Amino acid sequence: MININKAHLRSVNEPELPKDKLEYDQAMHQVELKIGKLLQTAPPLIRRQTSHLAQAFGKGIRARSLLACAMGSDSLISPGAVQAAIAVELLHLATLIHDDIIDEADTRRGIDALHVKFGQKIAVLCGDYLFCLAFDLASSIPPREVDRNKVGSVLPSYFTEICLGEIREVSNTGNLALTEGEYFRIISEKTAALFQASFHAGFLLSDEPPEVSDIYLTIGKEMGIIFQLADDCLDFTSSPKKAKKPVLIDCRRGVMTLPLIHALQIDKTLRGKIERGLAEQELKAAVLAAGGIEYTRSKIEERRTKAEQLISALRSPDKRNRLEGLLKQAAAV
Amino acid sequence: MININKAHLRSVNEPELPKDKLEYDQAMHQVELKIGKLLQTAPPLIRRQTSHLAQAFGKGIRARSLLACAMGSDSLISPGAVQAAIAVELLHLATLIHDDIIDEADTRRGIDALHVKFGQKIAVLCGDYLFCLAFDLASSIPPREVDRNKVGSVLPSYFTEICLGEIREVSNTGNLALTEGEYFRIISEKTAALFQASFHAGFLLSDEPPEVSDIYLTIGKEMGIIFQLADDCLDFTSSPKKAKKPVLIDCRRGVMTLPLIHALQIDKTLRGKIERGLAEQELKAAVLAAGGIEYTRSKIEERRTKAEQLISALRSPDKRNRLEGLLKQAAAV
């Protein structure tokens, strides 16, 4: 009468994962296929949200990074890395959903009875569900070698770090006195930790020797910071069409970004103006005039040079090429 | 400059966990101490919520169940079980926080600027943080024997099941046509899965032979269902003072419970009355009059008899005593 083993039998990761090693493009194709499938087969109540996510699944830079790091000296990638890449992207989607909790309510209020009543709750549950799927996948990845750290044991502490970064960001909403140092701490946690986790997992599933672990971790962290800095610039410089999302959204939410922090440093009249109320376009003009974008771009270049040096120390030319391409993509502003 | 290993070094589970085996009461004391500490040392923004949780930390029936199951033939409990018990209770707290998302907004609206703006967001992040701490703890529990399933690999699929149950419950809010079968499916997932997870983890950390695994899993599931059925009764029968929480809250939220489902079966006029609008006290009276409580209590007794039989098959008298006590506690209405 009671199906006692239901829980662990129903593990999401059992079916149709590849058995053999794959080339990079094949592996990424598997990641995209499986994520699409997981999102489309979500429980009906949250399927509207997950289907939307499936369409919006972007460049998958975290998954691509993980797969590139997992490439062996034969340039092939183990099936475990495909699973880890799916887990990392699902976790990213989960955090996106929970990030948007407040906006959801605003944009949907009054439109749809179910959403008025359960909009936030559905978003929370949808995020939780993806969180759990991610952990479920990560926890069952077999280690490459018996004495090697398991991916599932390494990822959770990065996830805690992401939460801490999110909490720290919310704590500093509208904090015009936020220092550059505090800002870098926040983005190291909220954004770079997941890149670092991807690089760490990729490394663990590669055939690289233990002593190069720190190189991977550092490249991952730098790439994550670069990605966030580039995103900060786009919030000011892009058009809504190009960015495929609303721009100046960080400003509107009171999220402190480096261009703004720098502008506040340079233009001592800006803080007072913002406190007295400044239109979005005026704020944008002030940040541009104070050189906030150039300054942020210079920080991107500094870190990019460092990351490139580290990448050039890796032994596989294929891997170096992939990682250089991803670094370029992360830095694109 | 860059602290590359921050993430995994900062793992929450490293310090001050006991090294030696413990007696049951000592082990439970450790669980309570450590949970209190984790909650009180949460990041400042969410500390108000976590401190509140620390005070409200109840009987810890899930942790107690896990520890009882983990008792060896020497009646002692391994340090890994303490860690697993903490993980299970943190996960429970995380789900409680996310459960309450909607109410938070209602009770706090207009009171506190920060909460008006970030009330829901803080609740989401607080839950996510506890989720991550729980996974972090669970993933680093060493297996009792090399070839034995790791606790960290077994728990995540139960957590997915809990999410599915929550989603199914929200989908059926106010669904007066919900069948008893569907109801049992929902509570098996949303409530019993975490009890089953506790029993499973306890079993894995005990010295019981693999062939008795199913006994543990079945007792866990039965105890979880019994616990939910008893809670359903309390929503109708308890006074707010006794229940230490508002009563008739399930009704108000449109959560379908067994006493109500049974009453709708027996009293065919009830559905129409509810649809036309019924005061809470009238609804309570109708459920009592239709025998909804007696019926639910009879289901509790059926399942309790079954669970008692299974418990009596276990070999350790100490463990049998503990589990019988916990079963009694779960069934208390």
Q: Any overview of this molecule?
A:
2 copies of one chain form a homodimer. The first copy, chain A, is an all-alpha fold and 333 residues long. The first copy, chain A, has one domain (13-331): Orthogonal Bundle (Farnesyl Diphosphate Synthase). Chain A is built from 17 helices and no strands. Chain A has helices spanning 6-9, 24-40, 44-56, 61-70, 79-99, 101-108, 113-139, 151-171, 180-204, 213-237, 240-243, 249-253, 258-266, 270-276, 280-289, 292-312, 317-331. Chain A starts with 5 loop residues before the first helix and ends with a helix. Mean pLDDT of chain A is 87; it is low at 1-15 and 107-115. Chains A and B meet through α1, α3, α6, α7 and α8 of A and α1, α3, α6, α7 and α8 of B.
At a glance:
The first copy, chain A, has helices at residues 6-9, 24-40, 44-56, 61-70, 79-99, 101-108, 113-139, 151-171, 180-204, 213-237, 240-243, 249-253, 258-266, 270-276, 280-289, 292-312, 317-331. The model of chain A is unreliable at 1-15 and 107-115 (pLDDT under 50). Helices cover 73% and strands 0% of the residues of chain A.
3D shape of chain A: globular
CATH architecture of chain A: Orthogonal Bundle
CATH H-level name of chain A... which superfamily? Answer: Farnesyl Diphosphate Synthase
Mean pLDDT of chain A: 87
CATH fold type of chain A: Farnesyl Diphosphate Synthase
Characterize the largest beta sheet of chain A: strand count, sense, and whether it forms a barrel: none
Question: Oligomeric status of the shown chains?
Answer: homodimer
Q: Which structural category do the helix and sheet elements of chain A fall into?
A: mainly alpha
Strand content bin of chain A = under 5%
